Amino acid sequence: MSKNIKTLSLLNRLAIAILVTTFSLSTNANTITLKNEQQLNKQGAAQTLTLFHQAAANANLAQYFNLLTENAIYLGTDANERWTKTTFKEYVEPLFKQGHGWLYSKIARNIILSEDGQSAFFDELLSNKNYGLCRSTGLLLKTPQGWKIAQYSLSVPLPNAIAKNIIKQIQEHTTPKSSQFKTATLLPRKTVKQ
């Protein structure tokens, strides 16, 4: 009887060890799969931003606007530049038709995925011939057609050492009042030279 109890005890311990090992391997496989999926999502989001910059440089209207969600917002460097996809396309189309695009070259990029992997926040440092060092920030959404830009904000970083002088110049320049800004968000913007 004692031998049977020892055998059952050994079999129970072996069964528990197998269950623990199986659970551990399953957990590790799920962790690896999740990490792989996160990496693929980051790569997809980064590819969308890269294609967006390439399309602008090549003045490729279809590709450029296909990378935006239907309700996308583009915030330019000027305080009056809050564009819907439609109003931004109206501004960009004549420029692109003439072959006038713009090149923003990536210096650095950070992408932070949401927990569910369906959206991503980004920030980039960019270089531009006319504006020098620029920063873009925004939101990407994962759609059935791939990653698309829902909000894109372009700014020119301001070194702290010269901020007071630049801010004073900006204040002396015509700055929109809040009522003008609200109107500017609703009406199509006039063409502005870049």
Oligomer: single chain
Strand tally, please?
Answer: 6
Q: Structural class given helices, strands, pairing?
A: alpha+beta
Per CATH, the architecture is: Roll
Globular, elongated, flat, extended or rod-shaped: what is the shape? elongated
Q: Give the strand content.
A: 25-35%
Helix content: 40-55%
Rg computed from alpha carbons, rounded to a whole number of angstroms:
26 Å
The CATH topology label is Nuclear Transport Factor 2, Chain: A
Strand order of the largest sheet: 2-1-6-5-4-3
Number of domains: 1
Mean pLDDT: 84
Contiguous runs where pLDDT drops below 50 for at least 5 residues: 182-194
CATH class value:
Alpha Beta
**Describe the biggest sheet?**
6 strands, mixed
Count of helices?
5
N- and C-termini, Cα separation: 92 Å
Order of helices and strands: HHEEHEEEEHH
